[in-house]
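input
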Amino acid sequence: MHQTSRTVQERARVGRDLFTYLHFPIVFGVILAALGIEQAMDRLEEVHRGATGAFALSSGLALFLIGTYAAAWRAVDARLHPGRRR
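output
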């Protein structure tokens, strides 16, 4: 019974971490990348597309990838080390 209760609590902690804290960088990265794509598409005719769009696209992509990696790491780490508290 004690082992099951601990497992349920650990799963709740992982769910909390994944779907609240680690969800923000993924969503914000998608929003920034969309802004960068929109900026680039607005300026297709121009030679210089603007630093704002390039910065938004690259930082959005980086934030999305870092958030995805962190979420995967947290999920796998919880599976490999179920007794470790966060």
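quick obs: The radius of gyration is 19 Å.
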